[in-house]
Amino acid sequence: MVRVIPMCGLCRRVHDDGFSARGATGWVDFPSYLARHVVPLSQIQFSCDYCSECRLSYDILKSYGM
After folding, report:
1. Would you say 53 and 60 are in contact if contact means Cβ atoms under 8 Å apart?
2. Which domain holds residue 58?
């Protein structure tokens, strides 16, 4: 079974649904993700997304016409 993991197109962090015990989600670096989840690399596929920090930075730059 292939696991699709959203990866930020700018900073390369991945979205981790199981980031904390309270069920909060967050963006973590890929080695941290692998430390929390035992998933063979052959069963991982990435999708492109943007983390909240990069999305905010992009929106600010876009407002200045960059």
Report:
1. no
2. 3-63
